[in-house]
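Continuing the series of single-chain predictions for the mutant panel. This is the parent chain; the variants come on the following pages.
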Amino acid sequence: MNKTNTENRYVQILSTGVRLEGIVSVPEDPQGLVVFVHGSGSSRHSPRNQFVAQTLQEGGLATLLFDLLTASEEEIDLRTHHLRFDIDMLARRTAGVLEWLDLQPYAYELKRGLFGSSTGAAAALMAAAELPEKVDAVVSRGGRPDLAGPALPKVQAPTLLIVGGNDEPVIDLNEEALAQMQEGSEKKLMIVPGASHLFEEPGTLEYAARLATDWFQNHLSPVSVR
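Parent structure:
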């Protein structure tokens, strides 16, 4: 499926008492919606996440890219680097975004997935554990799922962990996190050969984007009611 007629809209999301900037992209007849949870030091403008989002849109999936921090918080974090590692706070904000989506007419009937990168993967998994009825699939790219800690065994959503083959320390952390997730739950670790942590090598980000698209297409489908 290749969707090219996509509507983009800028949104302000009220979550945990702050307003977060985001952009929603909705193709014709979307079969699901994927919320991006960016990593440390990044934002909704992440070129890698934007590339993955476009691939998902071409596969018939709506996307939401949003900033986990406000503009003033980003200024503080540039100096202190502490907010980007406050996984509990980032998870609460992600959960707040999921609740905000319940009120949006273009989203409330769609199944939802979370796509997390780096530390954002931990926030995504924690939000999925807290709100299992609102998360139908999770994908992590070069993520740190180990930082989700005690939340890992509570994750019910089918989860795909994508790691670069040259990112050996993160491979180990993902293997350990996978082992902590529920027995019997659908979970999978995929290694992208030749990829480093940021998937900068030719073809590696495309491969990861295809893996994510396949996973979400398999687990998100149109529903008439939630």
